[in-house]
Amino acid sequence: MQNLLDTRALDNDEYGGPLEAAPALPPAIAALLAACQPIWVFGYGSLMWNPGFAHDAAEPALLRGWHRSFCIYSHRYRGTPERPGLVLGLDRGGACRGMALRIPAAAAEAAISYLWEREMVGGVYDFRPVRVRSASGAVDAHAFTVRRCHAGYAGRLSTEETARLILQGIGGRGHCREYLANTVRQLECLGHLDGPLHKLEERVKAMAALEPPCP
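Given the sequence above, the corresponding structure tokens read:
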């Protein structure tokens, strides 16, 4: 699938913690850019439906050893400090189906700079090399994985607590429910019609139905 996109305004749906600058690019990422080669990025949440950077290929892909989880508190973009929401991270164990997005070499510096500002502010992620499998075979990519030592890491929450936080979460980028729904719809586009996020979405809808109507 060819989809060369223009970069968009920053839309960090993730941690949204303290206002601070993103860390400097580490030597490994600087070396990656210096190689002047295409770079694959594995998207599993908002990067699937709102990548925001130029890419010339997008393929469904499977990552083993990591799973998608609502394990990151959002205090600004999908929640507030008083009423935090949750967003997705890649946590250790299991497997995850998502999208492998290829950044052409000519767009790599701009795309990685964009992603760094979007995802690395707050420091809740590592940007690590991973190997994913797509229809065309094994692909060496990079993915944003959660740092369990970070204060924004929520850990393994119950379905009820996850649904409650998603239901209450409203921040500068909108509702957590919208973030969940967009991810579920993208998974459905990939052919995944009945998974953990579908069940979570149903639970959020059930809890919402029990809330009193707005006056």
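Residues 65 and 94 are 5 Å apart (CA to CA). Try to locate this feature in the token string yourself.
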